[in-house]
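FORM 7B: Structural annotation worksheet

SECTION A. Query
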Amino acid sequence: LLNNMLKQRKSAEKVREYHQRASKWHHNHGSLEEAMFHAIAAKDFEGAAVMIEQNIAGMFMRSEVPVFLGWIEKLPEEILHNRPWIDIYRANTLALASQLDEVDPLLDGVENRIDPGAPQSAALLGHIAAIRAYSANLRGDHEGVIKMSQRARHNLPETHTIAHWMAAYALADACFARDDMEAASKELQDMVRVGQHTGQLILSVPALCDLAAVRKVQGQLNQAEELYARAHHLMVAHKGLDSRVRCSYEFGLADLLRERNQLDQAYQHANIGLELRQRLGGFLMVGDLVLMRILQARGDLDGAMEALRDAEKYMQTYPFQMAVTLEFKTARVAQCLALGDVETASQWADACDGGSELEQIVLARLRLAQGNTADILRLLELQRDHAREGGRKGRLIEILGLLAIAQSAQGQPNQAEATLSQALALARPEGFKRVFLDMGPPLYSLLEQIVPPDTPVSSPSLTDAYVHDLRNAFHLQDQAAGAPTLSHGLFNQLTDREKDVLRLLAEGLTNKQIASQLVVAPSTIKQHLKNIFRKLDVHSRTQAVARGRDFNLL
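SECTION B. Predicted structure
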């Protein structure tokens, strides 16, 4: 009513004057949104542009990006043309939102307008390079990340923390994806220092959690746990427990707890992260893959597949950082193998052609499931040497476990025992468990060879006690899933048709070939295989055949 009366009684020029006065009053009293509203209503675009420039950095730190973009959309292009920082921050926002097609034209336009001799030209060029480094990471352009990160570092003043963060984050992620944990660690430690110096949780908490992820790969779970504790302390101190950065803490800690087989606590933390993500946005994909692994470990196969489908939906919609994209590609192969679906895993494995350590490990798992143990011995030995040289003890533990299984399958029991003993020696001080539990019955059989079940437990060695704990974890996992325990020969529960399928499986036939032999649909064979895997408590075709031979089912 008052607005209508104002328009009726006062001229348009007078109304704009009132809006200008209101804008100045709100700006002087710290109400930026109201000040912007009235400036735009007054068509005082110059004044609005000045307020945006003055407050851009703070809005980014407070994650007020949508508001910032909304203001910019209301400004005429001629106003923006003379204010390169607004376009740079707009490109920055679009890059963070993964809208890469719009980023390069904006940055190109700004670069063409920069006077090399102007006072802020270096800072402008440095910020542009930082955005390009971040965009290059999302495109999977490793060389582009390195080049642009170096250019950003050369040009940027120390005070431009946002741009420094973008360049360092892009480079750290690219190094992580390329298995260079030392370089990734250095970049992340610099980010932590900057974040703590400025008191900005958006910088320090994700950097601490990413650094913890590096420590996991390096086999240092205890140090990773300390880093998560530091991140939590910072959030408490700065009242950030209800902010989106907490997602990185919750998802990261959940994955650490999963590795230690503390599945209930892991599930709780993952769900806290998902609830925060749903309310506050961000952190897609990462939480879904963590949840998938936790649900699989808890025996919730349907829930694990649903989490994988959610992750795949996000992957089809947005570009993701190099390390996250790599994790997704390998995780979906591993998940299919865990469900015994070797054919689908083989199809997904076609995308794992980058030669990274994660890809080589999951391809080795696939070859084991296909029964090609001879083919992977050399591959795993090579990866073992690379992981050892690179200080990636967390992955070395997994590689040694797989190598031990392959050696055992090739009739090399002494080598298998020695190899697994190395893995156990690395894993025990840090509390690794899931890496062994996820390898299933073949790994359990090797544990029994290292420490026989009748070994006295009155005063066991540290290794003996650790092996006893792992075997107990296997039994508890079987009981929770309703499967017969591994220490009893209660596997002769297969139907005649399931035994036929197992026999043909042992001959190396594919699902289609088995279906043709038995004159049924391939989908029927898939269901038989699921039943066989459940009854034999195995996770792959190779394991099923081996278990069938152990119990004279073939």
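SECTION C. Observations
The CA atoms of residues 287 and 370 lie 30 Å apart. The chain is about 75% helix and 0% strand.

SECTION D. Sign-off
Analyst initials: ____
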